[in-house]
Write a structure and sequence with these properties.
By secondary structure, this protein is mainly α. It is 73% helix and 0% strand. Residues 113-126 have a biased composition (Basic and acidic residues).
């Protein structure tokens, strides 16, 4: 697993290069590496796609990345720093949750105001005669 930590420090390009080299060496090896990278979430593959996923997920992908990083990151050897890092990550997760809740309340308020405006417009519109109503001829 030390190789995985090393490749994680270089990011996705390193995993892509390893996958390509694996396919070049022996296709089952490349297939195994590809399955590992997708299955472990290192490639960020998921059901949701597109730019709007960041708003829909509320940064769950980012939080997941921080969670994996904090769990897989080996101890620095300095207990005070490790405790500080854990406390900082916990505080950031709490702030992220608060911000996500704030955004949800903002969306609900916007939806409510749009609905209220729609209902007000609908009430103020004069009633249209139906198809069976006599015309003015």
């Amino acid at each position: 697993m030390e190789l995985a930590y090393k490749l994680d420090s270089y990011g996705k390009p390193a995993w892509i290069a390893l996958t390509v080299l694996g396919f070049m060496a022996w296709w089952p090896l490349g297939l195994a590496i590809l399955a590992f990278t997708i299955g472990s979430g290192r490639m960020g593959c998921g059901a949701k796609r597109g730019f709007s996923r960041w708003q829909e997920e509320g940064g769950d992908a980012l939080r997941g990345a921080f969670g994996r990083w904090s769990r897989t990151m080996p101890s620095s050897g300095n207990r005070a720093f490790d405790e500080y890092r854990q406390e900082t990550l916990r505080r950031l997760e709490d702030e992220q949750k608060d911000f996500r809740d704030f955004l949800e309340r903002l969306r609900q308020a916007k939806d409510k105001s749009e609905f209220d405006q729609f209902m007000a417009d609908r009430r103020s519109r004069p009633a249209e005669p139906g198809p069976d109503a006599p015309s003015g001829q």
